[in-house]
């Protein structure tokens, strides 16, 4: 079998958050393969720990991927301050959002991905470092059954570890000594781009990057939990069009036609038609710099961009690619980067910016839940029935015939208890 077939068999997908099936990526042609270990979200360290402990496999996965796509060049994007990693791998960058594919491809190759495009359009393929570890395992016939995670924030023992897929967040919380605040809520995937998670019954999937636990009353959580109508009302009355949100927007600084301060006009200047302003949101990547770092008034330009894009979609308008001018990074691109240390201060996370060291111990539970859709593409089709005994590594659900998708494998030995939108397995 070639690498694409092995990746397909093993259920390898993008581990960085999006969950795009890797077998499609390694079927392409490109001159450069980039390993994304930049992990720029504050407090999350799982890629760093993974690179320290599995540098050889990451490099093996990178080499295999380079061979598969015909690339002559492999680049590892990580952070300067991670000295242990730098000893093992090549250093590059330490700012937010250095893990963004548009930033990473530009930093590694000097090329700018076309608006709304993908790295392949400029001859590059980007893999999260954990996907490369999975690729190396796939080449030896081992499917994806476990996930690297950091659990940080208001927990007794912040840790980085490997969890069997399907483990509940509640189990992770207990594994880290429990919450140290009275009303714990989590940010799933990071403080900047992560989603608020109030249900700790949810399971770990291949795209779970980590959990930041905070009290419901923490300033960052209060901002994240503010209802959208309130966000928009405040924006309408308080935005003075200072344009800091645009001047610090990483995509604007890369040269793209994105201007969140103009999107903010859609909240107030409805007489001129919000659509005129909405299109300035089309190229937003949702990094959150404008809302959580740039705006001196504490407003919500990122959320206004989210709404603007939803409005454009609802109106049936194709996303706007910009004015079509030649892409060129802003002259201040290098100088307006957001250092992660400053971001940690701005987010009120200094007290939680502590090591979350790797432990080889793993959380254990009785019940494991495997969603049929935790990847980009069609949901997987179950291949097991309730009552059936399964072994760790066994296929639970298969890719829908002829569709983009990914297989799902059991992470433990057990008995299938439910088959619906998720498959529930209880340890035997
Ligand atoms: S930074 Fe804040 S106040 Fe300034 S234009 Fe943007 S949203 Fe308005
Ligand atoms: S979230 Fe804000 S800063 Fe980030 S790309 Fe969108 S507009 Fe720019």
- Just give the CATH class of the largest domain: Alpha Beta
CATH superfamily of the largest domain: NADH-ubiquinone oxidoreductase 51kDa subunit
Q: At CATH's second level, what is the architecture of the largest domain?
A: 3-Layer(aba) Sandwich
Beta-strand percentage range: 15-25%
How would you classify the helix and strand content by structural class?
Answer: alpha+beta
Strand order of the biggest β-sheet: 6-5-9-7-8
- The number of helical elements comes to 17
Q: Got a strand count?
A: 17
Based on the structure, what is the oligomeric state of the protein chains? Answer: single chain
Distance between the termini: 33 Å
Residue-averaged pLDDT = 93
Q: What is the name of the CATH topology of the largest domain?
A: Rossmann fold
What can you see in these coordinates?
- This protein is an alpha+beta fold.
- The protein folds into four domains: 3-139, Rossmann fold, CATH 3.40.50; 148-215 and 348-365, Ubiquitin-like (UB roll), CATH 3.10.20; 225-346, no CATH class; 367-428, OB fold (Dihydrolipoamide Acetyltransferase, E2P).
- Helix content is 32%, strand content 17%.
- It has 17 helices and 17 strands.
- It has a five-stranded mixed sheet, with helices on both faces.
- Strand 16 and strand 17 (422-427) form a beta hairpin.
- Helix 4 (55-69) packs across helix 7 (129-139), helix 10 (228-238) crosses helix 13 (260-268) and helix 13 (260-268) packs across helix 16.
- It is globular, with a radius of gyration of 22 Å.
- Mean pLDDT is 93; it is low at 85-93.
- One iron/sulfur cluster (SF4) binds at residues 249-251, 258, 260, 284-290, 301-302, 305.
């Amino acid at each position: 079998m070639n690498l694409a077939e092995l990746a397909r068999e093993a259920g390898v997908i993008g581990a960085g958050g999006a969950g795009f099936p890797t077998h499609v990526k390694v079927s392409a042609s490109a001159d450069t393969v980039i390993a994304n270990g930049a992990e720029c979200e504050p407090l999350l360290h799982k890629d760093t720990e993974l690179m320290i402990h599995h540098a050889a496999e990451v490099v093996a996965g990178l080499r295999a991927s380079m061979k598969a796509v015909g690339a002559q060049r492999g680049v590892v994007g990580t952070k300067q301050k991670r000295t242990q990693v730098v000893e093992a791998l090549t250093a590059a960058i330490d700012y937010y959002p250095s893990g963004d594919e548009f930033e990473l491809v530009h930093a590694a190759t000097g090329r700018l991905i076309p608006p709304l495009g993908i790295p392949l359009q400029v001859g590059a393929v980007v893999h999260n470092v954990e996907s490369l570890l999975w690729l190396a395992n796939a080449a030896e016939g081992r499917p994806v059954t476990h996930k690297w995670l950091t659990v940080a924030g208001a927990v007794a023992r912040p840790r980085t570890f490997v969890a069997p897929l399907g483990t509940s967040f509640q189990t992770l919380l207990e594994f880290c000594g429990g919450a140290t605040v009275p009303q714990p809520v989590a940010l799933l995937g990071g403080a900047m781009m992560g989603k608020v998670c109030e249900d700790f019954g949810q399971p770990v999937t291949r795209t779970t990057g980590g959990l930041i636990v905070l009290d419901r009353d923490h300033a960052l959580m209060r901002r994240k939990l503010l209802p959208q109508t309130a966000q928009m009302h405040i924006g309408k009355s308080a935005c003075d069009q200072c344009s800091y949100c645009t001047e610090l927007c990483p995509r604007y600084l890369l040269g793209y036609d994105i201007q969140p301060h103009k999107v903010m006009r859609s909240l107030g200047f409805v007489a001129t038609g919000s659509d005129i302003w909405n299109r300035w949101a089309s190229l937003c990547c949702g990094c959150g710099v404008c809302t959580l770092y740039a705006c001196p008034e504490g407003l919500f330009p990122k959320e206004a961009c989210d709404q603007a894009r939803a409005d454009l979609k609802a109106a049936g308008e194709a996303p706007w690619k910009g004015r079509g001018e030649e892409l060129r990074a802003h002259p201040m691109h290098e100088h307006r980067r957001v250092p992660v240390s400053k971001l940690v201060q701005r987010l009120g996370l200094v007290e939680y910016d502590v090591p979350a060291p790797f432990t080889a111990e793993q959380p254990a539970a009785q019940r494991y839940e495997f969603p049929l859709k935790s990847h980009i593409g069609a949901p997987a089709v179950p291949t097991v029935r309730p009552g059936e005994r399964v072994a760790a590594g066994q296929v639970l659900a298969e890719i829908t015939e002829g569709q983009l998708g990914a297989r799902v494998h059991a992470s433990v030995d057990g008995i299938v208890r439910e088959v619906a939108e998720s498959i529930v397995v209880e340890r035997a």
